[in-house]
């Protein structure tokens, strides 16, 4: 797959050739002078430019002060004073948009966070893959079925999943729909997290229901019971659990992969307070494993915005790359700015991760380490479903914790693909989903997600790991 070099706009360097890294000024459009991997072939450049113009005139979705607040919470994660939980769909879709789906995703993340808070005895920083996670990197540009070759599905931000010429033709108007869906999603999330839905006692009741009602939950009875007793203890001590807002509201942050840079550029605004640029499409943005080229457009773009950012690191990542990425993306060396998200695969994590963790530690690079135990563990089942095994997900997570324990570094958090629904996309777990059941409820538009119970099970397992 070849990168595309987008046409230059006014502020870019001349000639369409990437300028030397140190010899250029960042602007929201300076990425356009660099090769951008994993981009759609938009059929109509004018329509794309018009869409960018339209998005530029729309209000920001988040504001700079929020991104800074998340950065400082992530700094606490880096110091080992908080734990990061990042999760949500692989790809949000227009079809699955609705209040119930948003509620259920938030609900499962809040439930996980309570278990993790107790296990880690630390605050949990909650970041959704939500309200903007609509664009996907793919392993090929096209897909062929029965001799018909069409552009690959790149997420609802670009085209539609259905296999027809019309559906698969990239359409920039979709970016505006992404914006509006993200705005409505964020609005509901803000209401839920401030309006009482996130009440700690309620979330704990849901966890107790999970424990009581499902055979797979029963394993975690003791931990759930301890949490209930801890709450009762607080009340007995006179803590005003009913009225103290700490127990009723939560901070919940949004994030997505910053893949489509026209969209990200259009939502990048200058903060009136600091004069700094922020990508106001989400609180946190990350760079995917396939677009983290040092001289590429994605690294260039995110190097200049003030948001906290993440970079995925696959098993082929080298020490040099990690050092260069840290130098480019976090030149000031501020903790909380950069999260390294390792996604090595259960088989490779033990071999690959220690070297990187050690190098980062020995050079004193201030980063948050997080573990994405999903993307290195994807395979196709015998009956043709893209899936992951719950055991592999847990194995990679355990390895991540073991490596950090060994190296004396901080295992900052986890990054997972999950849904609040009872889907059958990942194998195993205490529900013991097998190949033959994958078709029962396989709804992901892209990668397989942990279902509600698998996600809770994962949280309880990690909570147990954190306590030991
Ligand atoms: C993703 O997070 O959905 C993804 C594509 O991840 P990665 O870049 O790590 O493959
Ligand atoms: Mn994915």
Automatic annotation (TrEMBL):
Superkingdom, taxonomy of origin: Bacteria
Pfam families xref list: DAHP_synth_2 (PF01474)
Co-factor note (free text): Binds 1 divalent cation per subunit. The enzyme is active with manganese, cobalt or cadmium ions.
Chain segments carrying region Disordered: 1-48
Functional pathway: Metabolic intermediate biosynthesis; chorismate biosynthesis; chorismate from D-erythrose 4-phosphate and phosphoenolpyruvate: step 1/7
Transmembrane segments: none
The EC number(s) this enzyme carries: 2.5.1.54
Enzyme class: transferase
Entry-linked InterPro entries: Aldolase_TIM, DAHP_synth_2
Amino acids binding Mn(2+): 90, 375, 417, 447
Catalyzed chemical reaction(s): D-erythrose 4-phosphate + phosphoenolpyruvate + H2O = 7-phospho-2-dehydro-3-deoxy-D-arabino-heptonate + phosphate
Key word DNA-binding present: no
One GO-annotated biological process of the protein: aromatic amino acid family biosynthetic process
Keyword tags: Amino-acid biosynthesis, Aromatic amino acid biosynthesis, Cadmium, Cobalt, Manganese, Transferase
Molecular function, one GO term: 3-deoxy-7-phosphoheptulonate synthase activity
Keyword Amino-acid biosynthesis: yes
Co-factor(s): Mn(2+); Co(2+); Cd(2+)
Matches recorded under SUPFAM superfamilies: Aldolase
Binding site for phosphoenolpyruvate: 129, 289-290, 312, 343
Protein family per UniProt: Belongs to the class-II DAHP synthase family.
The protein's name in its UniProt record: Phospho-2-dehydro-3-deoxyheptonate aldolase
Taxonomic source organism: Egibacter rhizosphaerae
């Amino acid at each position: 797959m070849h990168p595309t070099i987008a046409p230059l706009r006014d502020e870019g360097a001349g000639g369409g050739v990437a300028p030397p890294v140190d010899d250029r000024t960042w602007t929201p459009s300076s990425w356009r002078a660099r090769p951008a991997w994993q981009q759609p072939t938009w059929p109509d450049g004018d329509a794309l430019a018009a869409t960018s113009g339209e998005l530029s005139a729309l209000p920001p979705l988040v504001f700079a002060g929020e991104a800074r607040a998340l950065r400082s919470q992530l700094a606490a994660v880096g110091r080992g004073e908080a734990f990061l939980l990042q999760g949500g769909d692989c790809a949000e879709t227009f079809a699955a948009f609705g209040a119930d789906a948003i509620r259920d995703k938030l609900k499962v993340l809040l439930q996980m966070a309570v278990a993790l808070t107790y296990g880690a005895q630390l605050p949990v920083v909650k970041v959704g893959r939500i309200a903007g996670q609509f664009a996907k990197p793919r392993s090929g540009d096209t897909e062929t079925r029965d001799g018909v070759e069409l552009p690959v599905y790149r997420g609802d931000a670009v085209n539609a999943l259905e296999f027809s010429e019309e559906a698969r033709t990239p359409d920039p108007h979709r970016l505006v729909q992404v914006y509006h869906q993200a705005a409505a999603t964020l609005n509901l999330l803000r209401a839920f997290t401030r309006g009482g839905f996130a009440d700690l006692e309620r979330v704990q009741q849901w966890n107790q229901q999970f424990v009581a009602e499902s055979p797979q939950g029963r394993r975690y009875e003791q931990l759930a019971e301890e949490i209930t007793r801890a709450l009762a203890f607080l009340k007995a001590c006179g803590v005003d659990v009913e009225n103290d807002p700490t127990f009723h509201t939560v901070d919940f942050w949004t994030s997505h992969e910053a893949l489509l840079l026209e969209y990200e550029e259009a939502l990048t605004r200058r903060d009136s307070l600091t004069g700094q640029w922020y990508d106001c499409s989400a609180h946190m943005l990350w760079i995917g494993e396939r677009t983290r080229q040092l001289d590429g457009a994605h690294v260039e773009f995110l190097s200049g915005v003030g948001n906290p950012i993440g970079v995925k690191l696959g098993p082929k990542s080298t020490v040099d790359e990690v050092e260069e990425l840290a130098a480019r993306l976090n030149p000031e060396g501020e903790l909380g700015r950069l999260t390294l998200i390792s996604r090595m695969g259960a088989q490779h994590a033990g071999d690959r991760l220690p070297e990187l963790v050690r190098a980062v530690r020995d050079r004193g690079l201030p980063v948050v380490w997080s573990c994405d135990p999903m993307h290195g563990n994807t395979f196709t089942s015998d009956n043709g479903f893209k899936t992951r095994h719950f055991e592999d997900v847990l194995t990679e997570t355990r390895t991540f914790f073991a490596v950090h324990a060994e190296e004396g570094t901080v295992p900052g958090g986890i990054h997972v693909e999950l849904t609040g629904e009872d889907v059958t996309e990942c194998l195993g777990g205490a529900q013991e989903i097998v190949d033959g059941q994958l078709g029962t409820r396989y709804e992901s538009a892209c990668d397989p997600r942990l279902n509600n119970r698998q996600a809770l099970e994962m949280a309880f397992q990690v909570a147990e790991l954190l306590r030991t």
